[in-house]
Structure formats: structure tokens, C-alpha cells
Amino acid sequence: MASITVPMSGAQTAPRPKLSEYLRWSVDHKIIGTQYMATALFFFLIGGTLALLIRWELLTPALDFAATGSIYNSLFTMHATVMIFLWIIPFWAGIGNYIVPLQLGAKDMAFPWLNAFAFWLIIPAGILMLAGYFVGPAEAGWTSYPPLSVLFSGDGQTLWIISLHILGVSSILGAINFIVTIKNMRPESMGWFQMPLFAWAQLATSLIQILGVPFLAGGLTLLLLDRVAGTAFFDPSRGGDVLVWQNIFWFYSHPAVYVMVLPGMGVLSEVISVHSRKPIFGYKAIAFSSMGIALVGFTVWAHHMFTSLSPSLRIPFMVTSFIIAIPTGIKIFSWLATMWGGKIRFNSAMLFSVGFLSQFVIGGITGMMLGAIPLDIHMHDTYFVVSHFHFVLFGGSVFAIYSSIYHWFPKVTGRMLDERLGKIHFYVTYVSFFLTFFPQHIVGMQGMPRRVAEYAPEFQTMNIIISISAFVLGISTFIILFNMWWSMNHGKIAGPNPWRALTLEWQTSSPPPSYNFKGEVVPFEDPYGYGTEASRVYLDEMEKRLTPANLLGKTGDGGNSSEPMTGD
Amino acid sequence: MQHSRYSETFDFERQRQRQEELRLKNARTGVNLFQGSWIFTFVALIIANLQIRSSSPAWPPAGVEKLEPILPTIATIGLIVSAVFARRAFRALKRDDVRGFLVQWRVALGLGVAFVAVMAFEWLTLTPAPEARIRLANGVEMMSVLTQYNSMFRVMTAFHGLHALIIGVYMWNVYRGMAQTTLDGRKLWSVEAGAKLWYFVVIAWMLFYLVLYWL
User: Fold this and answer.
1) Chain A interface residues (partner B, CB cutoff 8 A)
2) What CATH number is attached to the domain comprising A535?
3) I need a surface site. Which of A137, A356, A362, A458 has the fewest CB within 10 A?
4) pTM given for the model
């Protein structure tokens, strides 16, 4: 980039954008990313509140807090929908938006306007979703199976469908943007296999979204017509077929769980390598296993329907479900091998990543248990299932989200998060998470059904333990929120590269200027080549270039020893 | 000093050109991805159609007339020809033949409108669907099955027609823009995008046409 297009001195003080810039339309991927993340965190609190209301109800076996079963139904329906579609998925879109163009050394995403548009679809969709509470909320579960969702759910269900439709469009547009950015906007010296693994993970995620979400859109169209136009596609008494919905819905929604966890796996690949000060073990294996998960993820959907499927069809889906453990296992072992013998820094980001490893393995193994037909028939629709998917979605995705916050907060704000609070947050979250969800395996195996407000009295002790842990878990969220709020202005100044990481997002100031990089970007040959002499030289050199004195833009005039970043 | 300023200006030009190339490349990849993605909503409806028909004892159910394929087949041929004309128009424009573009693009649009009109006619004159009676009779088994065949047809053609209309309006806008102003790179791209989206409409319809009339 020629120097006349770039205000050279802008890089130095790296001022944060003003608050008002976050509140209006902006096409800067960093602003949009932050908007996504802030919106997602807001919905996380709403979803969390709903979860705690569920746990409040389950303190006693009888129906007390929720006056009717309907209220309880709407609680768990809205909890799941908000957490999946308005918290985890948008958060990953947000952090991806912020980090991926930086990691690729790009000035912005491929389609900045489309990017902003995709974000601004989230807010009306979220409002529509929550507005369901004013017209009788959806209460058919987040899976929205007919006939429940057609005949018995309130008008909020219609809003739920429209909201999901909008979110789907947003996802597709966002995913197209990611794929085009990753494919076309890498610097010339960065081949596919010099690309950071977080970008690989976002690529795999986006591929799932562009192939999967259209199915959801088709299914939702039919569901909407069944609700408002008097058609009967899902009504067997009028010649329809309820399994049509289940097939189409799970054909999207099973891959969607990988949409929620693959970016988290990308975060782990970054965090574990950086904080172990070692090259990532099996770079290509991790990159290809992301693609493998994306691919095989489309062949397993019917394991959600084992109990409604003809027996001869169950076996193939059991086999594919087991196969998907292979790429996942490749990743887990690669991360372990990366840590092995490394100079590990157990800071908050690393702790949450290691926490992810342990909890996600439990979630994965219970997943294999549920993938086995005989066990599934015994345990389906019990708390064992609830426990399983919270281990992968909270112990997996949310831990990875926390890890990404601790890792990239310095880049986004220019300040470090407080480490002591971070560690307290980790230990409280880890223990209370485990005590919330692990006992659910036990009550589930003993036969406590999910999605029912009343339960047999013998489960009460366990449920009290679970509920109290859940309240602690809920409170623990405020530790990180407080930490973020406090550190925003009082945290240690981070500098451009506090972790001495090699990927490109760290080779610019924190926060990055609106044009991201001063001059042409030169990525290091191996994004994870830690511990080598060459990487040390590269990092030292970059550090010199990014010192405040150099970033002031005085280098061209004076006798400063380090050369400017480009020849311009 | 003079020299360096000179080279910067040169750099800037080259940079601008590279940006423009990248923008075009991105737009192309983006439209291709959108087509590859959104076609699956049509596939989802086809899967729904196939699954509902497989759980029905006969298709079309006894007592329902099979859809008459003659008029839709003519319309389909017209649609394919319109895609050919859209392509020829785009190629004419690449040769800087604006006049040829305008004529052929107009033919493509005209055929598209004719197709939508025929399908709208089919949609509206479909044997009055027994839905209304169903709701009054409240679930009579024999009649209820009748709704599926017709409402499937209606959903699918309407869903496709909606896409044809939206993309057709875009093509009409492109036409107006081209008729008024001179040619530049961005205009060329908007024509290419219009043609590509029109192919999408045609391919989506080919899938639906096969499923609705011949399977």
C-alpha cells in the first residue's frame, strides 16, 4: 500500500474507537466483530437467566415456581434457542470477524457492507424471538417438532420461526464473507498451509453454514406455512409426515453443533501453541480434521431420531456417528502432543483451553455412548442427553469462548485482563460447571426425563446439588464481565504483542488502527514456529517496529535504526 | 524528492487497480458460493416432497388430477431459451456491443416474464384445492390426502416464482442502468451477476420441473 493512502501516524497511540461508533452502522470488521460479541454476551445473560429459572423450578419435585407446565416449556425452549442461535453462533461470528482478517493480514473482510448487514439482522431477529413472550412464547423445544410446534405452541412459535429465518440469512451471508475472505485475501506469501488454524476452523464452520442453513430455511418455510397458511405438510392426519421436519431439521442442526464447536477448536489450536511456546503438533492433521468434521457432520443426523427410525437404518448412522470421533480425537491428541514438553504458561486463556480439553473429552465420550443404539434407546430424552450436550456446548464451546476472550482481549482493547480475577473465574467456573452437569449423567441414567418440570422425589437431593452449582456457575459469569469492564480502563497496557505470538493479528498495534496494518504485511513462514531462532529474530524485529516511538511515524525522518515496514 | 513523489503516485494507481481486481474476484466467488448454498433450500423442498409422497399410498392420491405438463413444458423451454439469451447478452457486452446487449437482455427478460405469467396462471387455476373443505369437514381421511399434492405444487412454484421475480427485478434494473449510462467495469459485473443469478433461477426450476411433473 502506498504511503499516501495510509495515515502513518495513526498507528501509534492506537486509540480505541469511541463508544458511539459501536452503536451505529459501521463497515469496519473490527467494529462489527465487537458489535457481534457484545450482542451475543447480552443474549448470554438472558439465556443464563432462563437457565437459572429452570434450575429454580427443579429445586423441588413438584410444580411450584412455574405456575404451569407451559411456562416451564417456554423456559427451556427459549433458553436453548437463545443460547444456540443468539449467543454461541453470533459470538463465533464476532470473534471470527475481528480476528480472521487480521490473521490474514487483510484490511477488512471481503464484503464490508454485507458484513454489517449480516450483523444488523441479528438484532431484529433477537427482538422478535424475545417478543414471543408478549404473545405466548414458543414452547415446543428448540427442535420445534411438529405437531407440538404447529398445533400446541403459542403465537411466539411463529415469531420463533421468522426470527430463525432471519438468523439463517445472517449466517449464510456471514459464512460467504468468511469463505471469500479466507480464499482470496491472504497475502501472497501465505499459502493454504501457512494459514492460522483459527482461520481453518472458521473456514470449515462457514462451509457447514452455507451447506446446512438452506435446509433449515426450507424446513422453516414449510413449518411457517403449516402454522399460518393451513397447509398440512407435517400433519399425518391430513397426509403429511412429521418425520419430514425431523429429517430436514437435523440435517441442518447436527452440523450446526459443529458450527458451535469448530471455531472453539480453532481457538484452542492458537492458544495452546502460543502458551506452550511450541509449534503446533500435526498442523495439517488439525486443518484436515476440521474439514473432516464438517464433511462427516452431514452424514450423522439421524442419530437424533434413533427411536423413530426403522431399525435397519439405525446401524449406518451409528457407524457414521462413531466415525466422527476420529477427526475429533486427532485434534485432541494433537493438542496434547503440542503441550507435551512445552514451556507452558498457565494463564487464564491457557487454563480455559486445558479446561476445554478435559470437559470436552467427557462430552465426546458420552456422545459415543449415546451414539450406540442400545444405550441411546435406554437413555434418550433423559438428563443424560442434557448432560452430554452441555458438556460439549458449555464445557466445549463456552470454555473456548472464555479462552478466546482472555487471549484476544488485549488485542481488542489494548489492555490486559486481570490475571488473578481470571484465575478465580476459571476455578469457580470449572468446579461449578462440573458439579452442575456431571450429576445429570447419574439422574439421567436412573431415568429422570428431560423437559419435564415434575420429577420423582428420589431425585431431589441430586437436583438440589445441581441447582446450587448452577447458581454459582451463573454468578461466575459476572467475574469475567467485571474483569472486562474494569480492565478496559485499568488493566495493564498490553502493547502490540503481549503473548509474543507469531500470527499476524499480533503484528500490529493493539487495538489495531482502522486500516489494520501499516504497509505490506509479511507473515512469518510458519504461524506456529515457536522456539526456533528464526522466530525469535522475527518477533524481536516486529517488536522493534511496533514500539511507540516507531509507530509515531518519525522513522522516515530521523536516524532510527529500524527500517519502516515497507519500502514506501 | 520529486522522484519519490512520482513513484508514490504510480504505486497508488497500481494499488487501486489491484483493489479493483480483488473486488471483482471476491464478488465472483461470493455469487458462486451464494448459488451453491441457496440451491439447497430448493433441494430441501424437493426432499420434503419426496418424503411426503413416499408416505402416501398413491401419488397423486386417488381422486386428484395429475398436473398437466404441456403448458409448463413450453414455459420451461422458454425459460431455458431466456437463459441462453442472457448469456448471449453478457457476451455481447464483453465485446462492447451495448446495442446487442440491450436487445438480447430484453428478450431474456420478456421470456422470463412470460414464464412467471404461465406459472402464475397454473398456480391460480389449479383445481380449487380442497383445503377449505378440509377445515370444515375437520379431518376426513380421504379428502385430507388430497391437499398434499396440490399444496406441495403451490409451495414449490411460489417459492421459485418469488426468486424469479426478485432476480427479474434486479435484471430490469441492470437493463435500465445500461440503457442510460456508458459502460465501465462495475456495470459489466452487475450484468454478469444478473446473468448468473438468472441461471440459478433456471437450474432451480429444472429441478422442480422434473420433480413436479415427471417423477
Assistant:
1) 1-5, 110-111, 114, 172, 175-177, 179-180, 183-185, 210-211, 213-215, 217-219, 221-222, 225, 230-233, 237-241, 243-244, 247-248, 568
2) 1.20.210.10
3) A458
4) 0.91
